[in-house]
Design brief:
The protein is 78% helix and 1% strand. By secondary structure, the protein is mostly helical.
Length: 449
Amino acid sequence: MSSDAPETAARPLIRNLRLGLLTVAWGAALVTILSGQAHGITATCGAAALGLFILLTLPRLRRDSLIILAMLGVVMLFILDDVPSLEDMTRGGERVLIFAALLPTMALVRATAMTMPSVHATQERLGRLPAVASAGGLQLAAHVFGGIINTGAFALLSAALPPDSGTHRRRIAAEAAIRGMVVSSAWSPFFVAFAIGQIFVAPAYAWMAIALGTVSAFLFMVVTIVGLHRGFKGTELRQSLACLGPVASRLAAVLAAVLVVAVVLELTALSAVVTVMPLLVLIQMLRHREKVTVIIADTCDAMNKTADDIVVITAAMLVAFFAISSASLASMVAGIYSDVIPGWIALPAVPIMMMSLSVIGIHPVITSTTLLAIFSGGGADVHPALLVQAHLVGWGAGTMSSVASLSVLSCATLYRVPTRQLVFGANIISGFGYAVVGGVGLALINMLI
């Protein structure tokens, strides 16, 4: 028993050290954005802190995270010409440093949202919806909240489900929440998916992809709500939209603030999110000082829980960075298809492959970084904005019904539904339909322009 005591005592110390390192990397990312200096001593220190954070996190990674890292390692073996030097790793670390700021920023936003009366008012209204409107209302609410707080929407909405709900209603609610949340990645700049996509194109094309995403997400929501929720008609739609009334103005203000800052300061969407959201949260905390302790505590807890995601996303972005820098990937593709890949192949291939491989456990982050590296920069005859939107459609489809999806795993726990039912239920059909129709539609648009 005494031999276990030092190990037990060391755990809080290591956890606090990891939290401190991640906070340093977060702060360094903010400084590099505001100063406009992506390289230099601040970025190097931030990359070093991120690297130490990853090393301390590796021993506690979940099994599925280790599997994803192993797959990314295999991809690295194929695309690298040589083993990266320390200088290459430092450059890569500086390049992906902003991802050490994105997830903690979203944790901060989520923690703040959970303390807001307007959010709780929406929660209560959703809980009072009649059964015929409940699933459609949850899908709409998950879409709106998911666009800002991502997976935090699941915890929020699961609390609105009546505690005596039966197995069938819980499953329907979980599937609806997943559909609504993941598809908001098509238009929301607050997703890791968008942060990945914009690395491969100019900022202007990334914003164009978001505009396209509003259309694809709208069409998906209309088709699935009408097709999957029998009895959901005009009256039920009005009831569901009324539930979103308390938060509508705040969410619109947040999106407007991000857009204005991005345009005025000429920032990418990712940089604007990381810069604006902490400022908005700070204003909220100054107005409600009694909530500061709760927000900080919940943020720290979320940062600890999202450590796996930070490591996986950082590793995926390093793979993308080296893929772009290496000539090996281009040579491999040239061996298969020596000419520029036609858009009618590339655009459907991205979402369909992301969806198909995700069902067997290959996370979309692996598929998307590889395909974007192949098809971007002239590798395929596609408009850059359409390529990013194809990636976003694939991300939504791939995380809708996958054993490796954090969304599926979270809802299985929160709604008390077996994971297999969420993976092989209605969402697998919705996901494939979204991927196929979205990819083919984008290919047709590419042909017209």
